[in-house]
Fold this sequence. Notes:
Layout: H1 2-20, H2 24-38, E1 42-47, E2 56-63, E3 73-77, E4 87-89, E5 92-96, H3 104-116, E6 123-126, E7 130-134, H4 141-158
Antiparallel strand pairs: 1-2, 2-7, 3-5, 3-6, 4-5, 6-7
Helix pairs in contact: 3-4
Amino acid sequence: MLWLIILLVVGLVFAPAMWLRPSRRQQRVMGLREYARELGVAVRIESSPLHDGGETLPAYRWRYPPQQPGPDFLVVREALASESLKACQPGWRWRVEPLRALPGDATSQLAALLEALPEDAVVVESSAACLTLWWDESLSCEAFTRLEARMPRLVQELAGRPDYPGAHSRLRAPRAPSAGS
């Protein structure tokens, strides 16, 4: 009987420690975030751009080069978008379209990316500073590697195509006077 009481007490002491242990999903997500950071992707948990009450979601960001800002746009998964929004690609709708049409290469890169995204990816957003993927982190590190390989190509195609080119002109270095000046 004494051994049973000792085992019960020891179990009660260690039970809270077992509850604090991260689940398998939490361990996988922590590993995925660390792996993404090693690849140069900024990862933050923030209020999502969705209109359903400011739900927080992980945001994975690929930065544009400082002197080559990107266009502003926001594409939302069709299941979360209003029917009144213009279709972008099958399964996706524009919430904010770029002011200037994207060139053909950028459009095809964006289409390929949207097609390759997992079902839990809900928003792809571009601003002058970065391209952001809002999702629920369902991929393994190996699958994320395949997805991550697409993002730099799209960033490269979108870089230097800001919606407001004049607003960023002060960021560029002044040009040297020409020989005829």
